[in-house]
Design goal:
This protein folds into 2 domains: 219 residues, Rossmann fold, CATH 3.40.50; 66 residues, Histone, subunit A. Strand 1, helix 2 and strand 2 form a beta-alpha-beta unit. A 3-stranded parallel β-sheet has the order 2-1-3, with helices on both faces. The chain has a two-stranded parallel ribbon with strand order 4-5. By secondary structure, the protein is mainly α. The longest helix is centred in the C-terminal third of the chain and has 23 residues.
C-alpha cells in the first residue's frame, strides 16, 4: 500500500483530483518503471501531471509549479479537492513554498559549464553535485547538472537559493507523510521491483532506445531505467539487474525520507503509519481533513 492507493481510497470518501508530483511520471511511455496508476484507477479518479512530455525533454520544477497551480484551480472549480501525491521534493517545494529568484548568469560561462557537465558520466556528475550541495538528493542528470551550475556560477548551493531567495507560493500546504518500519519498507520495495521486472520493464526501456531516445536522456536516467540501460549496454550482467535496482531504490527511499523530515517547514505535517490498509489510512486522513 502506497501513496496512490491511499489517494484512491480517499477519493471514495470525498471528490478529489490527484496531482502527481513525481518527476518521472511526466514522461510518456515510461509507465512500468514509474509505477503509474493503471487505466482502471485513472478512470475512477482524475489524475493530473502524467504523460506530459516525451522522454528526452526536460520538465522543470518551475514548469510543474505553474502547471499544478492551474490543475488545482480547475479541481476547485469542479468542486473537487486537489491532493498532491508524490515524492519529488523539489516539485512539492516549488508549488508550496515558491521557487528561488534566479540571479543573472554569464551566458558564456554557462555554456562552457554545460558542455563540461555533458561530458561527464551520470555518476560523476552526481558526485560533483553532492560535493557542491550537501543537500542534493539525486534524481538524474538534469537535477545534478542544475545543482552544479547554480553552485559554480553563483557561489551558493542550489539549496541555499531555495531557502533564502524564494518567490511567492501557490498554496498553504497540509502534509501527510506515510511511514513504514524499515523491514516492511524493504519488503515492499523488493516486491515492487519484482513486479516491474515481471511487467516488462526491460522491454519498456528497449522500446525507448529503439525509438532513438538517448541512453542518458531525461526520463531514462531515473532509478530502474538507468540500471536496465546499463545491462542492455553490456555493463551489467542480467543476473545482477534486480539487486542493482533494489539497492538504488533503497538508497533513494532513505534520502527521500531524510529530505522530507528536514525540509517540510511550512504548514502542518502529519506522519501516519502506513502498515495498515489504504482504506484505514484514508479514513484517518478524512477524519482530520481541514475544513
Amino acid at each position: 500500500m502506497g501513496k496512490t492507493a491511499v489517494a484512491v481510497a480517499l477519493a471514495a470518501l470525498t471528490p478529489l483530483t490527484v496531482i502527481s508530483a513525481d518527476a518521472r511520471q511526466v514522461y510518456r511511455g515510461l509507465d512500468i518503471g514509474t509505477a503509474k496508476p493503471d487505466p482502471e484507477t485513472l478512470a475512477r479518479v482524475p489524475h493530473r501531471g502524467l504523460d506530459l512530455v516525451e522522454p528526452g525533454e526536460r520538465y522543470s520544477a518551475g514548469r510543474f509549479a505553474r502547471d499544478a497551480a492551474a490543475w488545482i484551480a480547475a479541481a476547485r472549480a469542479a468542486q473537487r479537492q486537489p491532493v498532491v501525491v508524490g515524492g519529488t521534493g523539489l516539485y512539492i517545494r516549488a508549488l508550496a513554498e515558491g521557487l528561488f529568484r534566479e540571479p543573472p548568469f554569464d551566458a558564456d560561462r554557462r555554456a562552457q559549464l554545460r558542455q563540461w557537465s555533458e561530458s561527464l558520466e551520470g555518476a560523476d556528475l552526481a558526485r560533483w553535485a553532492g560535493r557542491l550541495d550537501p543537500q542534493f538528493l539525486s534524481g538524474g542528470r538534469q537535477r545534478a547538472a542544475r545543482a552544479v551550475e547554480v553552485a559554480l556560477l553563483t557561489g551558493h548551493a542550489l539549496s541555499w537559493w531555495q531557502r533564502e531567495a524564494r518567490e511567492g507560493a501557490t498554496l498553504s500546504p497540509w502534509y501527510i507523510q506515510l511511514t513504514l518500519p524499515r523491514e516492511v519498507l524493504h519488503r515492499r520495495l523488493a516486491a515492487r521491483v519484482d513486479q516491474m521486472l515481471a511487467a516488462g520493464l526491460v522491454g519498456e526501456v528497449q522500446r525507448q532506445l529503439h525509438a532513438g531516445i538517448a541512453a542518458d536522456a531525461p526520463g531514462l536516467d531515473g532509478i530502474g531505467y538507468r540500471e536496465v540501460v546499463s545491462m542492455l549496454q553490456g555493463q551489467m550482467a542480467e543476473s545482477s539487474l534486480r539487486e542493482a535496482i533494489l539497492v538504488a531504490t533503497r538508497r533513494y527511499a532513505k534520502r527521500q525520507d531524510t529530505w522530507f523530515r528536514h525540509q517540510l517547514r511550512e504548514g502542518q505535517v502529519w506522519t501516519i503509519d502506513a502498515t495498515e490498509t489504504a482504506d484505514v489510512v484514508a479514513g484517518r486522513v478524512f477524519e482530520r481533513w481541514p475544513a
